[in-house]
Specification:
The chain has 275 residues and is of the alpha+beta class. It folds into 2 domains: 222 residues, Alpha-Beta Plaits (2-Layer Sandwich), CATH 3.30.70.20; 42 residues. It is built from 9 helices and 10 strands. A hairpin with a 5-residue loop joins strand 6 and strand 7. The longest helix is centred in the C-terminal third of the chain and has 18 residues. The protein is globular and about 60 Å long. Its cofactor is [4Fe-4S] cluster. GO terms for molecular function: 4 iron, 4 sulfur cluster binding; metal ion binding. It is found in: Cell envelope.
């Protein structure tokens, strides 16, 4: 089965934000009232109603010159996805394309995926049912999986007029990224391919002009140890030994202990705020 990758070369981006508009239009996402950031950037980061954001970064390069760096920011679709591991309802899964998607019929809005995403690209959206009660669902970029099913490319890719983004076979896109880095090294000495191994690689890979931290990205993101312990060890053994009802009670206790950021004190390598 062919695995696909969205390739993003930030050195070609001119900051037009067409990708943001295309994403909003295709996914029927509403407009948002946002605070004034004092710059051309419209959002600090992605939200439940804005699944990709164009970042504008003022950066002083090695020669002491000020330059603007741009980055199309959206879900990375990690191969080893922390959000998928911590979901207690198995509402998050990989598709045959490599995209990570959320089944809203299964999502209970617990927020564990939001807390454990190393890139902070998942958000909770509030809804009201017919009785006026509030409930929540996780939201993020889907890599336009519905378009892929129809033989189309992601909306953001098709609207990009500078060739910043492409979409295709994973091996071919990684090779293209590595070749591009070799081409631009003389201009951008810190240029690199961002496809972090700590999350098993990603299905959105970047050619970055500078170190990841310059773009607000973790240098060495990884799946939290607690998530690995829960999904790969505690959950399967618990289900085998305790049965479904008891496991649900134990699971609620364990996940609240493991995945509550305020209590667990576990940090990502090179993590922190991404915006």
């Amino acid at each position: 089965m062919t695995e696909y990758v969205k390739y993003v070369d930030v050195t070609k981006c001119d900051g037009c934000r067409a990708c943001m508009v295309a994403c909003k239009n295709w996914n029927d996402l509403p407009a948002e009232n946002t605070e004034f950031l004092g710059s051309v950037q419209s959002h600090k980061k992605v939200t439940a109603d804005t699944w990709n954001v164009l970042q504008y970064i003022e950066h002083e390069n090695g020669k002491g010159n000020l330059e603007y760096l741009f980055r199309h920011s959206s879900c990375f679709h990690c191969h080893d996805a922390a959000c998928e591991k911590v979901c207690p309802e198995d509402a998050i899964s990989h598709t045959k394309y490599g995209s990570v998607v959320i089944d809203h019929d299964k999502c209970i809005g617990c927020g564990y995926c939001v807390q454990n995403c190393p890139f902070e690209v998942i958000s909770l959206k509030e809804y009201k049912d017919k009785n006026g009660s509030t409930y929540r669902k996780s939201q993020k970029c889907t890599l336009c999986t519905d378009r892929l099913d129809e033989g189309l490319q992601p909306a953001c890719v098709t609207t990009c007029h500078t060739g910043t983004m492409e979409f295709g076979d994973k091996t071919a896109m990684i090779n293209k990224a590595e070749q591009r880095v070799r081409e631009i090294k003389s201009r951008f000495p810190n240029a690199q391919v961002y496809n972090p191994s700590g999350v098993g690689g990603t299905n959105t890979i970047y050619v970055l002009a500078e170190k990841p931290s310059v773009y607000g990205l973790p240098e060495s993101p990884k799946v939290p140890t607690s998530a690995v312990a829960w999904k790969d060890y505690a959950q399967p053994i618990g289900k085998l030994m305790l049965g479904a009802t008891t496991m649900a009670v134990v699971g609620a206790f364990v996940t609240n202990r493991l995945f509550n950021k305020a209590g667990k004190g576990e940090t990502q390598d090179g993590g922190g705020s991404h915006e």
